[in-house]
Amino acid sequence: MINPDSVGRTFNGADLITVTQSEIDSFAAVIGETKTSVAPPTFSIRISLSQYESILTQPEIGVDWTRLVHGDQKFEIHRPIVAGDTFTCSATIETLRVAAGNEIISVRSDLHNGTELVVSCWSTLVVRG
Amino acid sequence: MIQIGTVLDEHVFTIDRALLKAYADASGDQNPIHQNEEFALSVGLPNVIAHGMLTMALAGKYVSDWAGGSANVKEFSARFIKPVIVPAGETVDLTVSATVVEINGDQIKLDIVATSAGVKVLGMAKAVVIK
Predict the structure, then answer these.
(1) Sheet strands (E) in B6-130
(2) Is the C-alpha dihedral spanning B40, B43, B47, B49 positive or negative?
(3) Would you call B69 and A72 a contact, using CB atoms and an 8 Å cutoff?
(4) What is the architecture, at CATH level 2, of domain A4-127?
(5) Residues of chain A neighbouring B21 (CB-CB closer than 8 A)
(6) Domains of chain B listed by start with CATH number
(7) Is the complex ipTM more than 0.90?
(8) Which residues of chain A have a CB within 8 Å of the CB of B18?
(9) DSSP state of B98
(10) What phi and psi values does residue B47 have, to the nearest 5 degrees?
(11) Where are the domains of chain A?
(12) pTM assigned to the model
């Protein structure tokens, strides 16, 4: 069970993540994008998803990652990500509800390069009961 | 001339198991339901399924191309309503189209439709681009 006390709280990821050109190139190649001076619009999920995993599976929150399904996803891209960006990533648990035995959490993730907010994203994650 | 109701040309992407492996490596999402058929069946799925985020990434490519590049995509959202099923040795389609639904200055909002094998796989898919 997810700890209901975690709702409304923001957790900061411990990692500082530097984006490399080769990561952008690999992601772009999968979708057939040849222009790689900036990252494709959904590239930041590479960062947010791994940070969600390390943050949300902490015992004080208690998400069971093995039963997770991605329900929906939204990005607000304040400027495109480029190689050399160094991000901190937070996770704010905005809502938690239970439906049909599944726990459904809405999580917001903000990627900051220093003090600059570059991408905000929202993910609905379903932990199957 | 772009106006509300303008329908963008459809594009068909192809998805196979090799693309799922490439996306897993590029995104870091190594969940076995996207690569291992035995595992996928064991958790009640009909077969290996594509990452929802791969579907969204391809739809994002479609939007970027129309907008003149990735840098022009400001907002992008979708629900993963049905899985894209990817049997071994087969190539399945992801067919994407979009309609202009709002214009605010240089910002254009698109409603996106994405189907695979005739089934709608993304719901409420929208993007805001600058063009």
Answers:
(1) 11-15, 73-80, 92-104, 107-116, 119-120, 122-130
(2) negative
(3) no
(4) Roll (3.10)
(5) none
(6) 11-15+50-130 (3.10.129.10)
(7) yes
(8) none
(9) E
(10) -175, -175
(11) 4-127
(12) 0.96
